[in-house]
TrEMBL record, chain A:
Catalytic activity: NAD(+) + NADPH + H(+)(in) = NADH + NADP(+) + H(+)(out)
Localisation per UniProt entry: Cell inner membrane
Residues that span the membrane, as ranges: 6-22, 34-52, 58-81
GO biological process: NADPH regeneration
NAD(P) transhydrogenase alpha subunit C-terminal domain: residues covered: 8-90
Species assigned in the record: Parahaliea maris
A GO CC term assigned to this protein in UniProt: plasma membrane
Keyword entries, A-Z: Cell inner membrane, Cell membrane, Membrane, NAD, NADP, Translocase, Transmembrane, Transmembrane helix
Gene Ontology MF: a single term: NADP binding
EC nos: 7.1.1.1
Name of the protein: proton-translocating NAD(P)(+) transhydrogenase
Taxonomic placement: Bacteria, Pseudomonadati, Pseudomonadota, Gammaproteobacteria, Cellvibrionales
Function in brief: The transhydrogenation between NADH and NADP is coupled to respiration and ATP hydrolysis and functions as a proton pump across the membrane.
Membrane topology classification: Multi-pass membrane protein
Length: 93, 456
């Protein structure tokens, strides 16, 4: 049942994603991409539980490395998106 | 009891952070609210991370902390230091890190995996994560010109690719049947890394907007698969949002080139054989001074930037030129083709950096109907996206691609380094048209010359 439940979530969020992204204007496509990239760093959440098991086995080290890599994504992605969006100005604004 | 309450809190926090991601993306739909949207999305991320840290299974925090510090420092430094012209390669690199993280999570989840379904999702997260990683590294190399940006084709490429795919399928099946035998795991990892390389090397530099969108989508799908592997809702929700966004951008890019995705991925654009077509007319060069006289007398100017503007770092002088023309009473607009540059929206970010207001940047469908009233269309470092052969020459490899119709403007200035043909070697009849004048030289210097004439 668990698998069905997760697939349900998958399907709904893909539909939501399509609806949302279709409305983003072309001028914001680069920030959209880097912002989405930051969101894909969500893997860090999965990595955290693996890096904190205290087992000191291979899985633990892989988890720790994954935390570092995904954090680059999250921190870098959000900061650079913010930097870009701060530059977008309206005429006379 | 406490454990259950904590789990409930964690799950509820995930629900809130999913809502924040969705709302953040919604706000990204307008330039006025986009910054707030990004902020909301980052709050959602912070919440999800804090919730994950409250997980009862975590007994040791030092390695997590070390990961945060190292990753955060690298990410913050990169975000601060990167130049706007290098944005495509940085996004490519970040995509790659995301893919690698999902691969590692998938591999690490193996130690606690039970049941075939989990094994299948582990394989998927390793496979998608692995090919995203190496694919993104190759894309990064091509975009930053660390490696050649051309399409790499060799005899038997299709055969090698098919063998790699078959190898991945076979070892994935074997892995699910014998998860305790590490050989299959290593094979899946190795082959998916190899597949990422093989998938991106045959794609040329100008097709990068498609590739980078697709890899963006993959990095989301990899997170999604990792979410299945470790049984985590928020990974699935966030991952599929990103996956959907990448797929939509990929579609937009393909449509803007009038090519199917499979054509972009498998054809190796540079190798398309073109029929020789006779182009009538001759090339008419123009000096900066003469160009100035024409510009002086014009009241409606359209600027069409392309990748060449990014290469020449000319966005700031372009802005200066715009201001001078507006001071003289002319109307200036920008026409942005969806695939101008090396990633979706590349030109918009560069012009935003130079303080050009975003309502002055028109999309192709908005500028084309106005083109006939334009006195001068200035093409800066763009080639294929203004090529009239896409409308007129049926044998042209870009026939059918929607282009910006600069040739309907009264006069066209093409700023170009030399007459060497573009990446795909496609002849551009625009250069030979009656109303076209070629302004040869470095775009930045040519515009600088115009600025001196205009302000002098």
């Amino acid at each position: 049942m668990e698998a069905v439940f997760l697939t349900f979530i998958l399907m709904l969020s893909i539909f939501v994603g399509f609806e949302l992204i279709n409305k983003v204007p072309a001028t914001l496509h680069t920030p959209l991409m880097s912002g989405a990239n930051a969101i894909s760093g969500i893997t860090v959440v999965g990595a955290i539980s693996l890096a904190g098991t205290g087992q000191h086995d291979l899985a633990n080290w892989l988890g720790a490395a994954a935390v570092a890599l995904a954090t680059i994504n999250v921190v870098g992605g959000y900061l650079v998106t913010d930097r870009m969006l701060a530059m977008f100005k309206k005429k006379g604004g | 009891m406490i454990v259950e309450t904590m789990q409930l809190i964690t799950q509820l926090a995930y629900v809130v952070s999913a809502a924040l991601f969705i709302f953040g993306l919604k706000l990204l739909g307008s330039a006025a609210t986009a910054r707030k949207g990004n902020m909301l999305s980052s709050v959602g991320m912070l919440l999800a991370i804090v919730a994950a840290l409250l997980d009862q299974g975590i007994v040791e925090f030092q390695w997590i902390l070390l990961g945060f510090v190292v990753g955060g420092a690298i990410g913050a430094a990169a975000a601060r230091l990167v130049q706007m012209t290098s944005m495509p390669e940085m996004v490519a690199l970040f995509n790659g890190f995301g893919g690698m993280a999902s691969l590692l999570v998938g591999a690490a989840a193996l130690s606690t995996a039970t049941g075939t379904f989990t094994l299948v999702t582990i394989v998927l997260s390793i496979l998608i994560g692995g090919l995203t990683f190496t694919g993104s590294l190759i894309a990064w190399g091509k975009l930053s010109e660390t490696i050649g940006s051309g399409a790499v084709m060799f005899r038997g490429q299709q055969v090698v690719n098919s063998l790699v795919v078959l190898g991945i399928l076979a070892s994935a099946v074997m892995f699910c049947l014998q998860p305790e035998n590490p050989t299959w795991l290593y094979l899946v990892i190795g082959l998916s890394l190899l597949f990422g390389i093989m998938a991106v090397i045959p794609i040329g530099g100008a097709d990068m907007p498609v590739v980078i969108s697709l890899l963006n989508s993959y990095s989301g799908l990899a997170a999604c698969a990792a979410g299945f592997a470790v049984n985590n809702n928020i990974l699935i929700v966030a991952g599929s949002l990103v996956g959907a966004s990448g797929i939509i951008l990929t579609q937009i890019m393909c449509k803007a080139m009038n090519r199917s995705l499979s054509n972009v991925l498998f054809s190796g654009f540079g190798s398309v054989s073109t029929e020789e077509t006779e182009i009538e007319g001759e090339i008419k060069p123009i000096s900066v001074e003469d160009a100035y006289y024409v510009l002086e007398a014009s009241s409606n100017v359209a600027i069409i930037p392309g990748y060449g503007m990014a290469v020449a770092q000319a966005q700031h002088v372009v802005k200066e030129l715009t201001e001078l023309l507006e001071k003289k009473g002319a109307e200036v607009n920008f026409g942005i083709h969806p695939v101008a540059g090396r990633m979706p929206g590349h030109m918009n970010v560069l012009l935003a950096e130079a303080d050009v207001p975003y309502d002055q940047l028109l999309e192709m469908d908005d500028i084309n109907p106005r083109m006939e009233t334009v006195d001068v269309a200035i093409v800066i470092g763009a080639n294929d996206v203004v090529n009239p052969a896409a409308r007129e020459v049926e044998s042209s490899p870009i026939y059918g691609m929607p282009v910006i119709n600069v040739d309907s403007a009264r006069t066209v200035f093409v700023l170009k380094r030399s007459m060497a043909s573009g990446f795909a070697g496609i002849e551009n009849p625009l250069f030979y048209k009656e109303n076209t004048r070629m302004l040869f030289g470095d775009a930045k210097e040519s515009i600088g010359g115009l600025i001196r004439e205009l302000s002098g």
